[in-house]
């Protein structure tokens, strides 16, 4: 089943959380000169026009990036993220939203590598076309072509062949649609396999907070994947919707092997993000981190 199109959701509060964290993880890896690889297992279309019929259907970007666009008091990580969005909108009007592949392309250095998987044939084509246009605009031609590889196919499976990356430094973003409950299981299985192949990689998983059992249980399951540590951050912008059509109100980013800098950064940032994106009195965040010892999740006290 391939009905999910990210164009309907681009730039919403969940994308803000995901892309702020994603960009900061890349900034962390870029602190060392040694190159690193970013693998995006569920890349989407790469760039989204916010005037499209998909994006305007529920105008989800109004709950996310649009609330930050005019603000002058952005904390550094949010300013960094909004800067990436501004690079796509040089005239200052918010018309386009960058998906994770564009965010990565903006942040990576020439020596770093980007590997993108997208299963949906239409989004795969749009993604390839977006990168072709980027190459043209930026004039990097062949160099860019070598740096970024796009594959139309299953990212859960494709990841296996890429681990460990030759540089032994890498970040994997796993961001499935979760329309089918299989996705929850595949995320966990994929992480378990990936850490065996590349134990020191940083793995970032986005997930929705929904009523369904698989969603509520997933973070606790991921905490048991053997690794050096985990961090789980959740942003809730409003009370749960009364029905299935009320839209997503809460989502999380689960990081395996998080850099030590991430938790203090998020502890400072999240109250600001709750105030900026919150829609009612139930807007809140949670932030937990811990270590995994022989299959048991040990929570670290803040
Ligand atoms: N990561 C993107 C971003 O942040 O801009 C958004 C990705 S969207 C949430 C999920 C994407 O995964 C959709 O474009 C969908 O077509 C694609 N997809 C679904 N199953 C997949 C699979 N097994 N492998 C690769 N892509 C898949």
Could you walk me through the main structural features you see in this protein, from its secondary elements to its overall organization?
The protein is an alpha/beta fold and 302 residues long. The chain has a single domain, classed as Rossmann fold. The protein is 41% helix and 21% strand. It has eleven helices and eleven strands. The strands form two sheets. It has a nine-stranded mixed beta sheet with strand order 5-4-1-6-7-9-8-10-11, with helices on both faces. β10 (284-293) and β11 form a beta hairpin. The radius of gyration is 18 Å and the shape is globular. The termini are far apart. 42% of the residues are buried. InterPro entries: RlmJ, SAM-dependent_MTases_sf. This is Ribosomal RNA large subunit methyltransferase J. Specifically methylates the adenine in position 2030 of 23S rRNA.
Give the beta-strand count: 11
Helical content (DSSP H or I, runs of 4+):
40-55%
Cα distance spanning the termini: 41 Å
Report on the biggest sheet: 9 strands, mixed
Low-pLDDT stretches are none
Order of helices and strands: HEEHHHEHEHHEHEHEHEEHEE
CATH topology title = Rossmann fold
Name given to the CATH architecture: 3-Layer(aba) Sandwich
**What structural category do the secondary elements indicate?**
alpha/beta
Count of all domains: 1
Shape, principal axes of CA atoms? globular
Return the average pLDDT rounded to an integer.
92
GO cellular component, one term: cytosol
Catalytic activity: adenosine(2030) in 23S rRNA + S-adenosyl-L-methionine = N(6)-methyladenosine(2030) in 23S rRNA + S-adenosyl-L-homocysteine + H(+)
EC number: 2.1.1.266
Subunit structure: Monomer.
């Amino acid at each position: 089943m391939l009905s999910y199109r990210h164009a309907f959701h681009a730039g919403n509060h969940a994308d803000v959380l995901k892309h702020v964290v994603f960009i900061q993880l890349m900034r962390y890896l870029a602190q060392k000169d040694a190159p690193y690889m970013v693998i995006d297992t569920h890349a989407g279309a790469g760039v989204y026009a916010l005037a499209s019929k998909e994006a305007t259907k529920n105008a989800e970007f109004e709950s996310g990036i649009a609330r930050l666009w005019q603000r002058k008091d952005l904390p550094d990580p949010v300013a960094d993220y909004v800067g990436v969005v501004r690079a796509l909108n040089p005239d200052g009007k918010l018309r386009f939203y960058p998906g994770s592949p564009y965010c990565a392309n903006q942040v990576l250095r020439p020596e770093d590598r980007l590997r993108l998987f997208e299963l949906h044939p239409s989004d795969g084509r749009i993604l390839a076309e977006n990168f072709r246009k980027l190459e043209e605009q930026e004039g990097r031609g062949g160099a860019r072509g070598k740096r970024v590889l796009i594959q139309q196919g299953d990212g859960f499976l494709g990841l296996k062949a890429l681990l460990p990356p030759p540089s032994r430094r890498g970040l994997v973003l796993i961001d499935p649609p979760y329309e089918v409950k299989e996705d929850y299981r595949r995320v966990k299985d994929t992480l378990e396999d990936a850490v065996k192949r590349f134990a020191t990689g940083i793995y970032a998983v986005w997930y929705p907070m929904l009523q369904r059992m698989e969603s509520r249980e997933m973070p606790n399951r991921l905490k048991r994947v053997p690794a050096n540590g985990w961090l789980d951050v959740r942003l809730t912008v409003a009370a749960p919707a009364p029905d299935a059509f009320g839209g997503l109100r809460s989502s999380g980013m689960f990081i395996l092997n998080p850099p030590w800098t991430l938790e203090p950064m998020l502890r400072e940032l999240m109250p600001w993000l709750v105030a900026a994106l919150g829609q009612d009195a139930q807007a809140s965040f949670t932030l937990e981190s811990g270590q995994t010892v022989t299959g048991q999740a040990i929570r670290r006290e803040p």
